[in-house]
Amino acid sequence: MSVRVKVCGVTRLSDAVAAWEAGADALGLNFYPKSPRYLDIPTAAALARTRPPLGTVLGVFVNASPDDIRERVRACGLTAVQLHGDEPPEACSGYGVPVIKALRIAGPEDVARARTYVGVGDVAGLLLDGASPGYGGGGVGFDWSLVAGLAGSGVPVLVAGGLKPSNVAEAVRATRPYGVDVASGVESAPGIKDVEAVRAFVRAAKSINLWE
Ligand SMILES: O=C(O)c1ccccc1NCC(=O)[C@H](O)[C@H](O)COP(=O)(O)O
User: Fold this and answer.
1) Cα separation of 97 and 110, whole Å?
2) What's the ipTM?
């Protein structure tokens, strides 16, 4: 069994298609207006239509209103939402699709906070990210040893933050997560994916056999 890969912050159709072809399991479409990877609804809907039958398309939101999230889920055909802001546990349901709650990890207290989302509402997994100043997508990692106990504890964990083709295999070995996620580590500029880097990332991540 190999790790699942989510490529986040795709903004171009050609990058979406290339990511699926490279073996990505999920794409993230960004709806945070302050992100350089922000998408309007028509663009996001077009990107979501590239989804293969078993693929997942997540909408990434930061402190958005429930109505706004529901509207974009419906209009874009999203299959999951990623709440990447300061959303409390009670905000993690009511969208009609599974929720991945993202948490920024800087110390053990953040791991303890992450645990408070386990089994809550529609939370189907946790995405553990570094503490980027702009909430996410900043290439900031964290100490993987902090979360070694979380992966394998029943809740699917995605590890993110500062991952790139050269370190993702090490991250998978260290944390044995359900999935890994990358935005800036496979880009030539914010929102512009480097297709060779995407391929190298997926290849390196999936080279680790999690059965062993
Ligand atoms: O990517 C963004 O611009 C972004 C902005 C605000 C909130 C979340 C954002 N991205 C979410 C992701 O899932 C990123 O892939 C994750 O933060 C890791 O990013 P990176 O360290 O650049 O790989």
Assistant:
1) 25
2) 0.98
In the DSSP assignment, the letter for residue 31 is -
Domain segments of the chain as ranges: 4-206
Ligand 1 centre and the CA of 183: distance in Å? 6
Q: What percentage of the chain exceeds 70 in pLDDT? A: 99
Mutate to test the pocket of ligand 1, among 103, 132, 187, 201 (most ligand atoms within 8 A of CB): 132
Strands (DSSP E) contained in 17-159 are 26-30, 56-61, 80-83, 99-104, 123-129, 157-159
The DSSP string of 49-77 is: TT--TT-EEEEEESS--HHHHHHHHHHHT
Q: Is the CB of 28 under 6 A from ligand 1?
A: yes
Q: Which CATH superfamily is domain 4-206 in?
A: Aldolase class I (3.20.20.70)
Which amino acid is present at 69? I
The whole-number average pLDDT for the span 109-126 is 94
Gap from CA of 8 to ligand 1 centroid (Å) = 7
Among protein residues, the one whose CA lies closest to atom 6 of ligand 1: 136
In this structure, the number of other CB atoms found within 10 A of the CB of residue 88 comes to: 11
Q: What is the pLDDT of residues 133-177, one digit of tens each?
A: 889 999 999 999 998 777 667 799 999 999 999 999 999 999 999
Q: Is a pLDDT exceeding 80 seen at residue 98? A: yes
- Helix residue ranges, H only, 145-188: 168-175
The pTM is what? 0.96
Encoded tokens for 6? 């989510």
